[in-house]
Each structure stands twice: as C-alpha cells, then as structure tokens.
Design a protein that fits this description.
- The structure holds two protein chains of two kinds.
- Chain A is α/β, with parallel strands linked by helices.
- In chain A, about 30% of the residues lie in helices and about 30% in strands.
- Chain A folds into two domains: about 10-85 and about 165-245, Rossmann fold, CATH 3.40.50; about 95-150, no CATH class.
- In chain A, the strands form three sheets. A six-stranded mixed sheet of chain A has the order 6-9-10-3-11-12, sandwiched between helices. Chain A has a four-stranded antiparallel sheet with strand order 2-1-4-5, with helices on one face.
- Chain B has one domain: ABC transporter involved in vitamin B12 uptake, BtuC.
- Chain B is built from 13 helices and four strands.
- The longest helix of chain B is centred in the first third of the chain and has 37 residues, at about 1-40.
- Classes of the chains: A alpha/beta, B mainly alpha.
- The interface of A and B includes residues 107 and 119 of A.
C-alpha cells in the first residue's frame, strides 16, 4: 500500500443511523487500484450497511466519499455505477424471471433505433454476454437461460459477470463465496485475482479466512459499527484477525 | 428408472417455455372448437364473432392495464371506477357542448390522471400494498363520478364520440355483404395490444417492469428508479381504463352510474386465466388477450345455449382456480428449489 498515490475510493467518517439504531459510526475505508481489501466483522458489525452506503443504496447520515480524490455524493445506485463502483450483493440481486444476458445488462441495456423507436437490441445483448462470459471463463448452457434455472454457483458467477461488464473501477463483493461449492470457490477467487491484475480495486466482505488470506492485500475489521483494527496481510495472522472479529486485540 | 424420470423432467423443462407462451392459445382454440360443435350455425357466424369482439372491447383495455400492474407484482382494483369516472366526465363535457375532439380526449386524460393518483399514492404514501391504495380509490373515483353527474345517467353523444365503440368499417369493396362489417373497436384492440406488446417486450421500460416483478431489489440495485416505473405503470393502466370509457361511451351512448361495476374483477380474472402470475414478472400480452377472449367466448357461448348467468359465474370462477393451479404446477416444474 503506497501512501503517496490517491486511493481509488475512500470513505471518511461514515455514520449511518436507522431510527435510533447506530449501524455505522465514524467508519473510514480506502482501497487503491489493483488492491484487494478484506472487510471482516461479526454479524451486525455493519459490513453490509457500509457496502450499501458505498453503492449509493443508503445515504450516510454523516461522512463523505471520495473517488480518485474527489468528493462524490451518491444519490442512487446509478451514481455509483457511473463512477465504476460495482456491487455483488450477498442476496445476488438478480431477477430470476429474466435470462442471464438481460440480468447482466439490466438497467443498461443496449438499444437500436427503429425509426423514432428505441428498441432493445437482443442480438447485441446475447453477443456481449457470450463474449463477457467467455472472458471470465464462466460456463452456462446459454445466455438465454433464465437465472432461476441456475445453480447457486452459476448465479454467483452471473452476479460477478454483471459487476464487471461495464469497465468497473472498484468491485465490492459481499460474501462472494458463502453459497458456493468448494470447486466453485476457487474459480471465484481466481476471478478476483484477475480483476486485481487489470487495476480494479476489490473490496471483499467475508467470514472465510481462507478467502481473505488467498486474495486480499489488506484487511480491516469492523466491530459494533466502528473501525476496530486494520493491517497488511503480511503483518498479521489468521488468529489475530479472528480475534478482531470477536472484539479482541 | 431414475434415468427415465430425469429424461421426462428434462423434456418438461424443454417444453415449459413453449407451454408458458402458447399453452393458453391451445385452450382458446379448444374452446372455439367446442363452441363451434355445440352451436355450428351461429357461433362462428360473422355476426356472432364481431359481437364477441364488441363485447370484450372495453374489458380488453382494463385487462391490459391491470396486466401491466400485475407484472410488477401489484394490483389495481380501481380500473372499473376509473372507467366510470372517465365516462361520467366525458358525458358531462359532451352535454356542456364541447366539440367532439375535446370530448374524445377528456376520458383519456381523466383516466391517466386517476392512474397517476394511484401511482403517486402507492409510492409517495408508501402504502404497504397497492391493494390498499386502489381499494380506496375504487370508492373515491366511483363516488366522484356520481358526484359530478348527480348519480343519474347522461345519454346522447355525437357520432364522432361514438366512433371507436360503435363505428363500422365497411367491407363491401371486398365483395362482402353489408352486414359483414369490421367493428372499429376490433381494430382498436389490435392496435393497442400490438403497441403494448412492443412496449413491454422491446423497450427498456418494459423490460424494467418485468424486472421489478421478478425482484424489485435487483431492479433497484441496477439503478432502476423503481418508484418512477411504478408511477408510469399505474398511469398507463388508468389511461387504458380511459380508452375503455371512450369505447363504452360509443357502445352504450350513455354515461351511467353502474358502468364498469365489478369489471376490475373481470380484468384480474382475464390476466390470471391468461397466465399472469400474482407473484409478478410473469405473463404475456398474448396471454392476456387469450384470457379476455376465453371469458368473452364463454359468456357468449353460454348465452347462445341459453345457460343461466348463474352457471356462467360458476364456470368462470372454476376456470380461475384451475388456471392458477396450472400456474402453481408450472412454478414447481420450472424453477429450482
């Protein structure tokens, strides 16, 4: 981690209240290009809330976000997408009734003009989907398959494909391997490593120490909605990180 | 044995998309054949077929509007009242002596505004379910309709106003007889259904309507403004009810307090029979059309055979239950658990 370059994404003093509940209090986070940051914490520590703030789904009660050193206010997920901040949600956020391709391009569908009408370009969706899935070495029967017909691992792969289809700068993943078979975990971790190589900043929220210690460069722990500890992977150990999750230093 | 089971299941999976798309048309064709066999002289006659289309013309507009709402996993109980209110406004404006082109536009605007009111209520007031908002407006709109008309029928419109509901396209130039005309309302149904088919299947907004029904959280996370789309959907539903009012004005030449009473239930029934799912995200425009036709043909056929309207109620109710049971079976087969 170099202190000289601007972080790609930085959050300062993020606080989020839900009514009288404080979900996050004065939380700081940064991630650099080509770096993977692991975020750990017990259930209810505020990991998912923090992620939803970064995605523009929740507005923080206080604090600010900086993208490439410039302050940004995210009013909606569309704003974060425009900055190249992409999310892979734990509940995957896919529409089961739509085919794979239409899920990947949902909200950003390519269109063609037919006279004054702007119609969906289904051929292009299919073409781009196949090319993108090939690039990520994701195997599915057809881009026309409905998502509800896929296995958990395939759905996770579609969700990741979705997050990287539009030149992402930062990809944030919530428990990307939680629902997967062991064979599929390796594939997802490989995918994260190849994203890092292309200069993408990755934030991985995970319970699994194996994931954190395989792909991350740095790890930070949240505890009861606050920053608890942070270290480079090379200067910490699994036992220490597990201790952080429990609130022990 | 297991292999054989698997093969049967995978065959089902392959057939599913086709059954989902065209199964309902099969049912429609069977019904037409049965009716033809039972009433060979009358049922498929020019006069009777055009009659069926005239009878379903305004219901088909309500059903299409409600269908869009159901795709978003919502419901609109107020379409019958929207139609009645739009019809009453049309009647009052016509009686006030407004020129026909104003009279023709008023129900469309009134319907649209009623739908907009529903949509804004559901989203801005954060109603727990559209059922509640539209149940409220079911009463509000009908009450308002009676308030502005004094609760009495208002009759007598000009030919221009009645054109969509009552107009005839003469086909004598094709060598047909004078009685073999094309009702304007039939052409209108075709045009409106094709436009909405293109809208729902080939536009971004249409795709987002399906996405919202499939998983509103996914739509939101994709940057889709879900509330805005919902407001559009309810507004369009109101607009279609307004077209229904214009057709009904032509057909009956009158604005009357009981117009469209309980027709929201017919519209919902047509959608459900046509394969739309209350869970949202499922159903086709073609299916809705088939649903409307099935209900229309059933009523028409039973009338021809002099079956009491009480039996018609029993039959239509049974078809709804049966259709939804088929929907349940389809979901069991078509999705992973």
């Amino acid at each position: 981690m170099s202190a000289t370059t601007n972080p790609l994404l930085e959050a300062k003093g993020i606080t989020k209240y839900f009514g009288t509940i404080t979900a996050l209090e004065n939380v700081n986070l940064k991630v650099h290009a080509g770096e993977c940051l692991g975020v750990v914490g017990d259930n209810g520590a505020g990991k998912s809330t923090l992620m939803k703030v970064l995605s523009g789904l929740y507005k923080p009660s206080a604090g600010s976000l900086f993208f490439q050193g410039k302050e940004e206010i995210l009013e909606s997920p569309r704003d974060s997408q425009n900055l190249g901040l992409e999310m892979v949600y734990q509940d995957l956020a896919l529409a089961g009734n739509l085919p794979i391709g239409e899920n990947i391009f949902l909200g950003r569908e390519p269109t063609k003009n037919l006279g004054f009408l702007k119609l969906l370009d289904f051929n292009k969706i299919k073409e781009l989907t196949n090319a993108h899935l090939d690039k990520l070495k994701i195997n599915v029967k057809s881009a026309d398959q409905k998502v509800e017909e896929l296995s958990g691992g395939q759905r996770q792969a579609v969700a990741i494909a979705r997050s990287t289809a539009f030149n992402a700068n930062v990809v944030i993943m919530d428990e990307p391997t939680a629902a997967l078979a062991i064979k599929e975990v390796g594939k997802v971790l490989d995918l994260i490593n190849s994203l890092k190589k292309t200069g993408v900043g990755v934030i991985v929220i995970s319970h699994r120490m194996d994931d954190i210690f395989t792909v991350c460069d740095r790890v930070m722990a949240l505890f009861q909605g606050t920053n608890f500890a942070e270290a480079n992977l090379s200067s910490t150990s699994r036992d220490e990180v597990i201790g952080w999750i429990m609130g022990k230093k | 044995m297991e292999d054989k089971d698997k093969k049967i299941v995978s065959l089902h999976l392959k057939l599913m998309p086709y059954l989902e798309k065209y199964g309902i048309l099969l049912l429609l064709v069977i019904m037409i054949l049965v009716m033809h066999i039972l009433q060979p002289d009358v049922f498929l006659s020019w006069r009777n077929v055009t009659n069926v289309f005239k009878q379903i013309s305004w219901q088909s507009m309500l059903a299409l509007g409600v269908f869009m709402v159901i795709v978003t996993a919502g419901i609109d109980l107020s379409v019958g009242s929207i139609m009645m209110l739009s019809l009453m406004i049309l009647a009052v404006v016509a009686k006030a002596g407004a020129p026909w082109y104003i009279v023709v536009i008023t129900p469309l605007i009134a319907g649209f505004l009623c739908g907009l009111f529903n949509g804004l209520g559901i989203t801005l007031l954060r109603m727990p379910h559209p059922f509640i908002m539209t149940l409220g407006t079911l009463y509000i709109f009908r009450g308002t309709g009676n308030l502005i008309s004094g609760g009495t029928p208002i009759s007598g419109f000009t030919d221009e106003v009645r054109y969509l509901g009552h107009g005839r396209i003469d086909l004598q130039w094709l060598g047909l007889e004078k009685s073999q005309y094309l009702p304007v309302s039939l052409v209108l149904i075709a045009i409106v259904y094709i436009i909405f088919w293109i809208f729902l299947n080939h536009s971004k907004t249409g795709k987002w309507i399906y996405a919202i029904g499939g998983n509103p959280n996914a739509a939101r996370a994709s940057g889709i403004n879900v509330n805005k789309i919902l407001v559009i959907v309810y507004s369009l539903c109101g607009f279609l009810s307004g077209i229904g009012a214009l057709i009904l004005a032509g057909r009956t030449d009158s604005g009357y307090p009981n117009a469209g009473l309980q027709s929201e239930l017919d519209a919902i029934a047509a959608c459900i029979i046509g394969g739309a799912s209350f869970f949202g995200g499922r159903g086709t425009v073609l299916g809705v059309f088939a649903g409307v036709m099935i209900m229309g043909i059933l009523r028409n056929g039973l009338n021809l055979m002099d079956v009491s309207s009480f039996w018609q109620q029993v039959l239509i109710g049974s078809i709804i239950v049966l259709a939804v049971y088929v929907d349940v079976l389809r979901r069991d087969l078509g999705t992973r658990k």
